[in-house]
Amino acid sequence: MSDQPKRPYEPMYKIACGLVERLQGACHRIEIAGSLRRKEKLIGDIEIVAVPIMHTNLLGEPLDTSAVDGLLAGWPVTLIKNGPKQKAFDFVGSKGQTYRVDLFLQPDPATWGANLLIRTGSRDFTKKMVTLNWQGGFMPVGYRVKDARVWRNGEPLDTPEEADVFELWGMGFIEPGAR
């Protein structure tokens, strides 16, 4: 849950769409997550999930930086977190209000579905999705979720879409607004 002031959905959604549009060229895939994706009435912060375009060296080997890093370096933002998989920053909008953005970077497209599901929430829903069913959650025995990746009996599984996680759990897809 965000500690940011709560603001109405519509203006926050417009701001998030503008950010996604500006970040799009630095990403293979990008989508709004969190309470905005669930279409809550009041929004505290803007959460975005992205598969960034990774920088490479002269031999084409991936580096630890992405096109998102380069893009953010040129923006007038205050970085709160600057890790390889999460960027958090504040920026001041056109009306002088400060907005918090949590940008979750998942360089491996095979983990997109699990990451988007986790970052969409809600907190209670996500907790049930990553808790074994015999412990009151939805996750079948033999699975685990670690670092936004689904594992079955110690083997990593690809979940390029959210629906892949629901299918592995033997569930129908649950729309974000119902989570």
Counting helices, strands and paired strands, the structural category is: alpha+beta
CATH class of the largest domain: Alpha Beta
Helix content bin: 25-40%
Please tell me the total number of domains: 2
Query: Which CATH architecture of the largest domain is right?
Result: 2-Layer Sandwich
Structural notes for this entry:
The chain is of the alpha+beta class. It folds into two domains: 7-105, Beta Polymerase, domain 2 (2-Layer Sandwich), CATH 3.30.460.10; 110-171, 2-Layer Sandwich (Beta Polymerase, domain 3). 27% of the residues lie in helices and 31% in strands. It has six helices and twelve strands. It has helices spanning 9-23, 34-37, 67-73, 112-120, 123-129, 162-168, and strands spanning 7-8, 27-32, 42-43, 46-52, 54-56, 62-66, 78-82, 86-92, 98-105, 143-146, 149-152, 155-157. The strands form four sheets. The chain has a five-stranded mixed sheet, with helices on both faces. A three-stranded antiparallel sheet has the order 10-11-12, with no helix packed on it. β8 (86-92) and β9 (98-105) form a beta hairpin. α4 (112-120) crosses α6 (162-168). It is globular, with a radius of gyration of 17 Å. The mean pLDDT is 94.
Features:
2 domains, Beta Polymerase, domain 2, 27% helix, alpha+beta, 6 helices, Beta Polymerase, domain 3, single chain, 179 residues, 3-stranded antiparallel sheet, 5-stranded mixed sheet
